[in-house]
Amino acid sequence: MFADLYFYISKIVTPFIIPSNILIFLLIIFFYIGFIKNKIYVRKFFISIFIIFSTISIFPIGNNLIYFFLEKKFYNPEIPNKIDYIFVPSGSIKRTIFALNFLNNSNLKEVKIIFSSGIPYLDQNNSKDSGTSIVKSLVSSSKISSENIIFLSNARNTFENFKRLNEFLIEKNKGQSKILLITDAFHMKRSLMMAKKFNINISSLPSNFLTKKDSVGLINTYQNISIVNNLRDFDTFIKELISTSISRFL
């Protein structure tokens, strides 16, 4: 019951906590209000919102916040010598590809990969779980045996990813297994927090970083200016910050 309530509330609220959505909506609203009511305070509010929106659009503020508060800690991961399972929570195909490549290129022949999958949408009748089919397709073209792949279904968010993993470990009497978690670096902090709540013995290996760059320097930074990416990074940081804060109370 609680898991369902958390899922529905989080999905309904999500569009209203994305900073770029909020700022654009406010800009549109106060732009038209300015025509209707020629008030100084309306214009001042519009200008203030415009300055904030322009700042996070032009400068990589979100990317820097992600680096210092979410990803920096995981830049140099240490892979443990003993691994029983590799766990890949749903949410990104990059995690899947990274996990399969990692296992393909390692000597961990007896290690199994646990993929958590599900439909993270409110209207599940008009949605599909594409993650499972993609994993099966990738596995069929890799050196990994399908017997080494375990699917945990019906996980709709990070909380349920680890809830399903914990239930699996208990069912198989593998509660003390050593798990290697593969997920996005910005998602790692919240994932480890969830794992701790279920007392899962886990270590981390980021699949990709939003803050790692192929180029540095002023000229290259200018060349890579992207308003879309800057807004995306800021949105990602705020969403992750809110989700991590809420996760402390789950």
Walkthrough of the structure:
The chain has 250 residues and is α/β, with parallel strands linked by helices. The protein is built from 10 helices and 5 strands. Strands 3-2-1-4-5 form a 5-stranded parallel beta sheet, sandwiched between helices. The longest helix is centred in the C-terminal third of the chain and has 21 residues, at 227-247. It is globular and about 70 Å long. The chain starts with a helix and ends with a helix. 27% of the residues are buried.
Helical segment count: 10
Average of the residue pLDDT scores: 89
Q: Give the class from helix and strand content and strand pairing.
A: alpha/beta
Which bin fits the share of residues in helices? Answer: 55-70%
Tell me the total number of β-strands.
5
Order of helices and strands: HHHHEHEHEHEHEHH
Largest sheet: 5 strands, parallel
Backbone CA Rg: 21 Å
Strand order, biggest sheet? 3-2-1-4-5
Provide the low-confidence segments as ranges.
none
Cα shape: globular
